[in-house]
Amino acid sequence: MAAPAEFRPRRTCLYMPGRNARAIEKARGLDADVLIFDLEDAVAPDAKAAARDHVVEAVRGGGFGRREIVVRVNAADTEWGADDLAAVAAAKPDAILLPKVKGAADLAAIDAGGVPLWAMVETSAAILAIGEIGAVDGLAAFVMGTNDLALEMRAETGEGREAFLFALSACVTAARAHGCAAIDGVFNDVADEDGLFAECAQGRRLGFDGKSLIHPAQLEAANTAFAPSAEAVERARKVIAAFDAPENAGKGVLKVYGRMTELLHLEEARRTVAMIEAIADRRV
Which residues contact 234 (CB under 8 A, 6 or more apart)? Predict the structure, then answer.
């Protein structure tokens, strides 16, 4: 029951407008785990082609260190979708984020040239088909699109997000069933740091790996909320050390910190340590 050979932290997934060359250049120094270069919502129709060219150039140019690079293309049924997909797939980012996914067929029809796919979960249809979507080969992550989902559901975003708890949990459940990452939706009020931290904490309790963000000012709160605390890391190392001790070889249950600790807790402890080590490694 070893820790993953490669563990990529995805605490913070920052959207960057594909048309904004200065923002993409600044992104090389931001403390984000994932950069999502956006060709969809953040780009006006008359700027789509120019934004695509700039993003492709940036991806090919590199220089983003260990940050994961994802490009959100326009939906396949738009006039820009096919050209986006062809150009971005050829540039070989770490993943391609597909918007407006409604079912498994939307992903199965995509030829991304071997580039992993991420799927936006922002429609009611996607929630109802979430298990089938998660089973599509090549899918690596779900990203909640709570703003679009709120519009379609005629629901309100706000403290507690009661209207979306079913959708959020369905997304996480499907992600875990199919070995995908699960990224929570954006928090719209850039100035409300307390509200952001509270929503990040809720997302973490629900099981999300990280948060999608709309502004660099949100990075610190989300990085903190989705990283294991120093106390959690210390406990995890104690659990691993206890199971690794020669006198405990072959045991399935131990007492650590006065608590009964099973192999499932060992698996979680190894994941915690893998995450904190990956975070430290990404900062090198």
Answer: none
